[in-house]
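User: Fold this; tokens only.

Assistant: Input:
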Amino acid sequence: MRFAVVTLAACLAASHLAVGQWMGKQTGCYADSIAANPNRPTVANPADITQYGVLELEYGWDRLWPGVGVQQTSVGGLLKFGMLCDVELRWNTTSFLSQTNASGTHRSFGDNWLGPQIRVYRQTKRVANAGLRLRHQNTLGQHER
């Protein structure tokens, strides 16, 4: 009896996966090969989205000088998942933030942003992609104003 239940559950799960892959092929969302959609979080954010069913992880290190005598270093990342053909879920994070100025060095955790990016127009030969991004910001670090 237990074997029959486990076998039935495995068949049901496999059939849902097979239908999902078949639907992706029929709608043109599921490509034969994976193509990267690179961008630099908070620097360059393209309107194109990650392929359906693909999970991408990007991390980087930034150093900038926002003012005279001020140096800022941060480590940021982006996790993207292609949820639907024209929708991806994004989690941007600034994992670590350090700022040095005349009063010393201040270190903290950065902010997190979570939300979808929606492609509203797919690129053609004459018109570029168009997209919409919605996000919720969660501040973990203590920011001095």
